[in-house]
Design goal:
Blueprint (H helix, E strand, L loop, with lengths): L8 H30 L5 H10 L3 H28 L3 H20 L13
Length: 120
Amino acid sequence: MEMLFQFSPEQAVLIVGVSLTVMFILSIIIQFRIFEKIVVTGYALTTIQKIDSSGSMFWVAVVGWVIVYALDAVISSGLYVMFSSTSESLASTSAILRLIYTAIVLSLPGRTGHEKAPSL
């Protein structure tokens, strides 16, 4: 596989580690400092009003999530480079599984973890 940039496995480990750390911190900030103050689960009108009054914070959060998912692609490439010296099949499998994970997460509807339990 021809790569756009050539990295050593050691550099790939550093890139993956930094990317995961940035993803973690950015996700925490976006979810718990921005979205929880804007999104009111079950109340669309209130949520729209809060988005409207939040200024650019909503769009900062959206751009933040785009960065998080772009970092997922960087991590997939880094995993490929990390494992390519060990096993080509392991490298391909780890990169593909990470991309599948990213695709699944992107396809899920927005969940904040604070949904009301369904009434029985």
